[in-house]
Amino acid sequence: MIRLRLFFTVLLLASAVSVGAQTKEGGKAPGGPKAGGKGSRNLAVSVATATIASGDIEIRISALGAVKALNTVTVRPRVSGQLMKIYFTEGQAVKAGDPLADIDPRPFEVALTQAEGQLARDRAALANAKLDLKRYQDAAEAITRQQLDSAGAQVGQLEGTVKVDEGAVANARLQVEYSKVTAPISGVVGLRQVDVGNVVSSSDATGLVVITQLQPVSVIFGVPESDIPVLQYAIGQGAQLKAEAFDRDGRMVLAVGDLSALDNQIDASTGTLRLRALFTNADRRLFPNQFVNIRLTVENKKGVLLAPTAAVQISDKDRFVFILNPDDTVTRRTVRTGVVDGLNTEILEGLKAGEVIAADGLDRLQTGTKVIVAGRRKPAGAPAEAPAAK
């Protein structure tokens, strides 16, 4: 047992001596150079670049909106009766005055005939009363004053009766016209709510069909109250503000229209002002109650310095970019930005037209970092590219 312990002790001592000898001969400890040492600073980073240039940029307001039809009508019959015929098909575009359905007109035609007969009878009575009055007037000396006055009153009474009869005839004719249901507005009819053969009435809640105007159509959306001064200024200058409607993902433009109206008060619960934009909707890509993303162009600024938005970095103190130096190194520079419009950012201070900045790989850059511009051949003797961070 004692010999076995002595054997392992000697073996461990021999291993320690061997490792020490290797370290002394190699001049460095196992594991290579220390990470982040001086050698890592000489590694070049591959970047894409962008040149600062002047251009145009638009000031835009983004908001979420809902499509609203300018006119929506539930078509209900004006008279009660049996539905005899339907002229429209579901989803059909109709114009104001187009026939939609027929209600059995026979009861109304009978009522019209009765009213016309009553009118003819009373007109004959009126004509006879006028003749009597004329006779009494011609023989005024042979009759009493009371008889003459009574004849005149009879004529007036029958004239009133004829007026009532004429109204009854007009009403009966109107009922006959109402038995033919026509489109009150131009639009697209929806799904049919009733079938032929059913008895319909003006008090039916669902009606016959719903007609919705799709061309043009509007979108109602809200903007923060902080944007109202910019809007009012642009409108005061007489500008027609362009509105673009995008799909839910904000990628596809569904329609392009114009700002139509502003509401007259701010919603106190949300701090927003409701606006309406009008769209011709020629291809019917907008439907009522559809949610869309609205991008309202308030102003178009011309001749400003532009930089790629991805190249502008944001810290807790400032915004900065990396300038490309002639020796293929970069320098951090603070900038002041203005309008941001998607891919481009307005540069107010810190850059000049023609300067070249790094546009990607920014997380591996600092002042003095050596770079290789993507798409350009690496100069002879340049250090190797730094590996991408995992």
What features would you describe in this structure?
By secondary structure, this protein is α+β, with helices and mostly antiparallel strands. The chain has four domains: 44-57 and 303-373, conserved putative lor/sdh protein from methanococcus maripaludis s2 fold (Beta Barrel); 61-71 and 213-301, Elongation Factor Tu (Ef-tu), domain 3; 72-102 and 180-212, OB fold (Dihydrolipoamide Acetyltransferase, E2P); 105-178, Helix hairpin bin (Helix Hairpins). Helices cover 26% and strands 35% of the residues. It has helices spanning 2-26, 106-138, 145-178, 228-236, and strands at 45-47, 49-51, 53-69, 72-75, 81-86, 93-94, 99-103, 180-182, 187-189, 199-200, 209-212, 217-224, 242-246, 253-267, 272-279, 291-308, 313-314, 319-324, 330-341, 344-349, 356-358, 371-373. The strands form five sheets. It has a six-stranded antiparallel beta barrel. It has a four-stranded antiparallel beta sheet with strand order 4-11-9-6, with no helix packed on it. Strands 8-7-5-10 form a four-stranded antiparallel beta sheet. α2 packs antiparallel against α3. The chain is elongated.
